[in-house]
Amino acid sequence: MSLKDKRIKSEYRSLIDNVVQDFYIPLLHESTSYKRAVGFFSSSALVEISKGIADMAKDGGKIEIVASPYLSDDDIQAIKEGYENRQKIIEGALIRQLSDEHEDYYSMERLNLLAHLISDGILDIRIAYTDKDNEIGMYHEKMGILEDKDGNHVAFSGSMNESMTAMSINYETIDVFCDWKEAEADRVKLKKNAFYSMWNNVEPSLKVLEFPNISDVLIEKYRRKNPNFDIDHEQFKRRILAYGSMLQGISNFSGTQVGARIPADVELHEYQKEAIASWVGENYRGIFDMATGTGKTYTGLGAISKLSEDLNDDLAVIIVAPYKHLVEQWVEDIVKFNMKPIIAYGDPVHKDWRKKFSKAITDQKIRRDKRFLCVVTTNITFASPDFQERIDKIKSSILLVVDEAHNFGARSYAKHLDDRFAYRLALSATLERHRDDEGTALLYSFFGKKCIEYPLERAIDEDKLTPYKYYPILVYLSELELESYEQLSYEMSKCMIKDKHGKYKLNKRGEILALKRSRVVAGAMQKLEALKREITPYKDDNNILVYCGATRVIDDSDTSSDDESDIRQIEAVTKILGNELNMSVARFTSEENMEERALIKEHFQDGGKLQAIVAIKCLDEGVNIPGIRTAFILASTTNPKEYIQRRGRVLRKADNKPFAEIYDFVTLPRPLDSVSGLTIEQANRDKTLVKNELARIKEFGRLALNSMLANNLIWDIQEAYHLNDTDLEKEGEDFE
């Protein structure tokens, strides 16, 4: 094939078109030469430039890049005043743009690929800047030229910089011209001539120079192992196909039954069958309280199938999950159970959910073959007026299935739990809401009793989850952190009010202060030092999870202002693993879309391309990554729901996983040997944090294979603070 054989639009808009998927990858695949002029030079720009070039580079294609340095006011002033050689100043500015911000798997692989292409003479970078009357400025033109083996050319230009922001956030455009089209041939020729003039440094008032040292720096900084020429296919084509296959499965739905059915190749465990039977006996209402990783989803789908059969498929099923990625995870399993779900949430792929939902409701009323209806949605969309309005129009019986149902104890969701839903099912490993007895009682009142309790100890004993070893790692607050913690505790003590039951609680200001205090603990700087020490022996291993807090930590080595020296813990951790330990690592946060997460999980599971995942809160609920063998938990949550779920993520069964390991970074106010010198008042202030951390150590340690390690630490801490078991049963409240 050639460029002429490709479908090429005359214009691409970044918020409408996938520029990488639709333009760069297919056209560069057919190209033997790629000439690119971009607005600025940076590590981010280099990552974006690399998207699409792997195929042509593997086949020996030539890539030429012209970029411009970003010069600070000080740089320009130094050049004007002749303090230094301008090329040295420009070189220094270029090196500053080669940041360490890219530690994720794909960025590092792309920079590694570029470094190899430079060293192999396939990629050449030259630097451009304007120079008129000793006034130095940035070259800001953006264009590109592609050429195939037959001499066909495609030129493009426009407002788009090679950056992630330009590609996905800003509303940018590129215009495209093909030289085999008579009306566009002159435009292509003009672009070719302009690039030739620039590349050979004959363009008036524009300096284009080679900076050999920059190439050396790029190679030294980013070259690691053999380049991955499949990176484009891995990151883009395969992930799109993987997601597409799931949606294709929905569109090609060919079940002979109208409603839900358990597939022939799925055999439920006895405890799952018992749960369903109990739920049926409670008039199709109840709670499945099952440890994370024991098959709540399949048990729920089995229950749906049973009710669908019993009602001759005359049923509307509404499944609600907290997050978009959990909805998509549900869909993967739903389609196996003979259902064609409507996916309802605010996403361009599913933007027509309102129309589909309304049509399904109408069809259900008038068509025998459409009497079964299934909608999967997020908590937020479920609570929206548009969704609630459509529920009101459903005439058949409705089954409401709520995943991670503890979230529905919040008033914003609880107000929608009413008699419209004849049948009800709650799924949760931890239905009890932390310090919210009222919300917990409401959930039990609506959903009914527990139809199954399948706790962690039973799951491990029956080989449904993996045994584990638990290593609590002590870290301490710094002087500044302890001072901040104590000051916040003092201010919280003045924010007490009585609730309607006569119990003391924090007012709104107190809740804000409590959040600030928890972040002090979560972001303790010693955790980073301890993590590096503990994870170093594992730097050549795979299947590692590092669980960060959604917090910020202070980099003590940085002398800049507070705002600039605050870095997110996840960024600091990724830098330690990716840069300092040279591990292949990817972030798993709310910033990655569903397709990206699917690919991260795939690479993580096979253990070959990705050693570690660095995650935050989004991994708490529902995400299934069974391959995790070793977890380092930095997040110091006091919420049992959260840390129990985090443990559950690690204990899912997988091949070659006889046991899991959990490193829990336990934060105490100060070293234990210094506690004896405290006043009674100081010791009492410490105890809130101490008791909260002890509760987690006790829970994690009680089922561990090496439980004595945790027990010994518990005894040491209790002895230092003169605590007994009765004290530990009194939870360390945030306002104490």
Describe this structure in words.
By secondary structure, this protein is α/β, with parallel strands linked by helices. The protein folds into 3 domains: 227 residues, Endonuclease Chain A (Endonuclease, Chain A), CATH 3.30.870; 223 residues, Rossmann fold (3-Layer(aba) Sandwich); 262 residues, P-loop containing nucleotide triphosphate hydrolases (Rossmann fold, 3-Layer(aba) Sandwich). Helix content is 43%, strand content 19%. The protein is built from 29 helices and 26 strands. The strands form 5 sheets. Strands 1, 2, 3, 4, 5, 6, 7, 8 and 9 form a 9-stranded mixed beta sheet that branches. The longest helix is centred in the C-terminal third of the chain and has 23 residues. It is globular, with a radius of gyration of 30 Å. The C terminus is likely disordered.
- Poorly predicted ranges (pLDDT <50, ≥5 residues)? 160-171, 238-255, 552-567, 731-736
Tell me, briefly, the overall form. Answer: globular
Number of helical segments? 29
Structural class: alpha/beta
Termini separation:
72 Å
Q: How many domain units?
A: 3
In helices, the fraction of residues equals 40-55%
pLDDT averaged over residues: 83
Strand portion: 15-25%
Annotation, overall tally of beta strands: 26
Q: What is the CATH architecture annotation of the largest domain?
A: 3-Layer(aba) Sandwich
CATH class of the largest domain: Alpha Beta
Fold-level CATH name of the largest domain: Rossmann fold
Radius of gyration using CA atoms only? 30 Å
The CATH superfamily of the largest domain is identified as: P-loop containing nucleotide triphosphate hydrolases
Largest sheet: 9 strands, mixed
